[in-house]
Amino acid sequence: MNLPLSAQLINLMAALLLLIAFAMLSQRRILSLIYLFAWQGAVLSANTLIVAWSTGQPHLYYSALITLALKVIVLPWLLHRLIVRLDIERDVETMINIPITMLIGIALVIFAFNLALPIAQWAQTITRSTLGIAIASVLLSFLMMITRRKAVPQVIGFLAMENGLFFAATSTTYGMPMVVELGIALDVLVGTFIFGIFFFQIRETFDSLDISNLEKLKED
Amino acid sequence: MPWFDFIPLNIVIGIILLWIALGVAGLIAPSNLQYVTRALLPLGAAAGVALAATAFAAMTQDAAVCVLPLGLPDLPFHLRIDALSAFFLALLGLASAGVSLFYAGYLRAGEDNSPGLTCLQYHLFLASMAAIFVADDGYLFMVAWESMALSSYFLVTSNHRDATTRSAGFLYLLIAHVGAIGILLCFGVLQAGSGDYTFATMRAVEPASAGWMTVAYLLALFGFGAKAGLLPLHAWLPEAHPAAPSPVSALMSGVMLKTAIYGLLRVTFDLLNTQIWWWGVLTLALGLVTALFGVLFAAVQTDMKRLLAYSSIENIGIVLIGIGLAITFRAFDMHALAALALVAALYHCLNHAFFKCLLFLVTGSVLHATNERSLGRLGGLIHSMPVVAWLALIGTLAIAGLPPLNGFVSEWLLLQAFLLTPGLPNSYLNMLVPVAAAALALTFALSGYVMVKFYGVIFLGQPREEKLKAAHDAGGFERLGLLWLAVGCVLLGVLPVPIILQLGTVTSQLLGASIGDSVVASGWLFITPIAPERASYSPLIFLVVIAAVVLLVFLLVRAVYHGRVRRGAAWDCGFPLQTSRMQDTAEGFGQPIKRIFEMFFRIERHEPTPFDSAPYYKSRTEDRLWYWLYLPVARLAERLSGWVGVLQRGRIHIYLIYSFATLILLLAFAR
Amino acid sequence: MIEAVLSQLFQTLLAVLLAPLMLGWINNCRAWLQNKSAPGLMQPYRTLRKLFHKDAVLAHNASSLFRVAPYLIFGCMVLAASIVPAIETNLPFAYAADAIALVGVFALARVFMALAAMDIGTAFGSLGARREMLVAFLAEPALLMVLFTPALISQSTSLNTMVATLGQREFALYPSLAYAAVAFVMVLLAENARIPIDNPATHLELTMIHEAMILEYSARHLALMEWAAAMKLMIYCTVGIALFAPWGIAAAGDWQLLPAATIALVAKLLLAGGGLAVLETVSAKMRIFRAPEFLGMAFLLGVLGMLTHFLLER
């Protein structure tokens, strides 16, 4: 292993990201999901900071700051307030089958790693080997959305997926143009607001946040 | 003597003939128990030892061939002994010696079969297995294969008055023949149109294309897999092994399953000149699934022989994992690693023969002493049967893969083969290797669980039935047989290097590479499959250190303190009433596995409600594949035969019309 | 050659004699964290001495397996202590047993403990044996996976070579080792009967695993079992330190560095013990059927570690 220190740190951040994605897959409590999401945001901004420092690209500093503000502070606070008002703070969700989910997760990780190998060969960034991990965390968050029955964890899965995409962008192309990043950040923020409003509506209509109730809306 | 050279091949033929003669000799006085058990069976055991010695000598020599004037007019019997055959002959000889000795003490008068008849079937079984190993053409191979299947069928249905035994035997024979069809077709593909069914021709000729080679391999996997108990053709194993008498089960599990492994190795590495990598991956995957299936089902069994039968399925899976790995490495030209994987697989075959025979023979002793097969009615037998119990402990520790016994050596070699790979060219395969190693480690851990259950419920604890206190220990011949196999387990575990060197001749023949040089790089004391800094293990030092520490601590404690012992009632947290019903049952011990792996079993459960007037608990754990695969196939077969049965009208006129129509058709078309 | 034997002897004796002290330190830290008065660092030694003096009381139906098991288990732990390079990487015994054999030694000890537990035939013994094998059948492959990651990095399963590669080459961060470290801590908690898998201080039947298995032992047998359990914890901590924090371990033949290496080891063990006490205090014991999920997570993290090695470090 003779990579420079920055590359090793980035690999470490990538590993932590994947670890958090797996941990979210097996969490039952909604509160711990929000904390894990906050940690994921912190890892993401730390990673962006390291890339910024080692490649000397100033716009990545701003990107890291936005990530920190949005994903570590604002969004978790919003989500926390939401679940407090929905009164599901202490909820524990029954999971379908954790070992099977984990095994599918491992299969997805192998698939993502193999997918990323040829792409990693012609990218020019120092972070190209982490593309596989980024794809893997996107797929894992998608899996998390599929295996959940309540609404709030599904939303957190969606946000985690966006985290993974952001990481993928940082690892192959040193981030996106500033305009795009601001736009995405705004979208995510607005999206969360809208989710919050919808959750209240769903709860009003069905008296529970179980997504399977939405099936009753289809016409028979 | 001028007409008889004492070359190994001739000696082996002589021993086969001796076994057949011993079998026929049993018919002279079929109901004379003394004659059969004191004269014929020990002679058979001695023949087995002689066979093993000859085979060891033959492994280091070149291959020898011979043609006997028996068989078909244009296809006489060809025989050949080479390193691969010699290894399996040695396995047969050693294992059968122990089993024959045990059988001498086990056979009783008053069973359904007369002793002489049993002697005939038993020795024919041994002779046909030996003939399989030296067969060098398709015809002799199939003749020997069929006689092995038939003689073992008769042995399995020894207690033919019992209906479950009869149906178990039927299922066994059925699947054996389904497999035989696969093997026949495989030979047909291998001879590639040359018309000559000798193995020498099959070696020289290549099937037309890679597609045909794949067909040959898949047919061999199907055919030999049916005999080995590979998923999904395993259903006969858990039925036939418990139904047969214990020494027969021991031989079937220990040696007969290995004939299938021999056949697969012969076809894959010897008769087919090249191997394709995905065959190896398929075999590895099948082996993994079989191993996990076997051990999971073994954990929930309540019959001690069924538990051992499922454990055999697991071990065959492990052997196939090794073979699959060897094929994959060979296909990518990594010969040294292929040799390592093959050595691990072959060593595991040898180990399994020893410890599985030992454990089945132990169940035989327990069955004779207590007349119980169900784990729910045994317990505490270490007090009344100490010799059997301690020898069984050696077998249990060996099969659980614990150092310094033999199970650990093959486990260790297999894990090394998985780990020390510099990397396969295919990146998907590279990443699947850790996952496969993980599944293998899980299988090993689960087999420890199963064996603790087996030993603990049978021999430890309190007796669950009153009559168990009157159980008697095993007799002289039985002890000899058990001791022979137990000593084999210990020796194979503590002195593995000479065996690995001998196995090097087999891998040299099949793969063109051997790990012999690197294995002895640090001397005979250490196994170093690749290099001493990379991996090294010395079971003898292991054993000596533990024994020395035990002795030292014992003496120190006695010297510094004291060695006083008092006896009292068991503490049990102060609970005053303890009965034997309060200990764990076999179902209880397997319950965590049943709960965690619930989706793999088909469980029928009945739990009482508070409103039942006669409440009862019932739980039945079954094999899903029986309902998914076997029953639908059986129903299909029944339906097809129903349609064909329409032809059978029962009236002579109709049959005459059939013959008349056939005659007219032939006359019209064969002008 | 002589110095190799001497350093081997020194390391083994260190592990054997200091194991109860480590246990005492952890108990003390736990007491301090929970605002109780500590029993004193030397308490385990005093307990052992008390037990050795007593008469052994055996149940009427205890067999010879029951009497032999404590000595065997102690012997296995001594062998395990002698193959883990805690201070120096030049251990002659390490050539007799590598990482896989280390797992095998632990398995051997565990099987004997379970069999001895089933020997008397009480409900507790067989319950403890069943639960122990349940925890073991997932913890053992998880431990193997954790050990495979450094094995893949150093291309060897010999513990000497692993520690030498990881500790004496240039400092580098291996993310796969991060996964392996998390998995290792989880396996350590499970295998040594700590919270959240088992409560070492409990005497309630429903919450025991390890305690249930040694319930029928007394006097010198119990002393040997307790000592073996303390040694197992010490060996696990030492393995973790050797693989994941190997700085300070002397290279082979460098015996002038031995005192410094010993001090480094003691400091790391103190930290490890403190960390263990903190972990135990902030967690609650899990239901027994959550234990497979916990260990399954450890197992999967181990596999992930190996996969990450293939991706990021090849």
Mean pLDDT of chain B: 88
Radius of gyration of chain A: 18 Å
**Nearest-integer average pLDDT of chain A:** 80
Instruction: Tell me what portion of residues of chain B adopts beta-strand conformation.
Output: under 5%
The count of strands of chain B amounts to 5
Number of helices of chain B: 24
Q: Unreliable segments of chain B (pLDDT under 50, ≥5 consecutive)?
A: none
- Classify the secondary structure makeup of chain A into a structural class: mainly alpha
What is the N-to-C order of secondary-structure elements of chain B (H for helix, E for strand)? HHEEHHHHHHHHHHHHHHHHHHHEHEEHH
* Widest sheet, order of strands of chain B: 1-2
Low-confidence stretches of chain A: none
Oligomer state of the chains in this structure? heterotrimer
Note the total helix count of chain A. Answer: 7
Task: Give the total of domains of chain A.
Answer: 1
Describe this structure in words.
The complex is a heterotrimer of chains A (220), B (671) and C (314). Chain A has one domain. Helix content of chain A is 77%, strand content 0%. Chain A has 7 helices and no strands. The longest helix of chain A is centred in the N-terminal third of the chain and has 29 residues. The mean pLDDT of chain A is 80. Chain B has 3 domains: 202 residues, no CATH class; 285 residues; 47 residues, no CATH class. A two-stranded antiparallel sheet of chain B has the order 1-2. In chain B, strands 4-5 form a two-stranded antiparallel ribbon. Chain C has 314 residues and is mainly α. Chain C has one domain. The radius of gyration of chain C is 19 Å and the shape is globular. The chains are: A mainly alpha (220), B mainly alpha (671), C mainly alpha (314). Chains in contact: A-B, A-C, B-C. Chains B and C meet through helix 15, helix 16, helix 17, helix 21 and strand 3 of B and strand 1, helix 3, helix 4, helix 5 and helix 11 of C. Strand 3 of chain B pairs parallel with strand 1 of chain C, so a sheet runs across the interface.
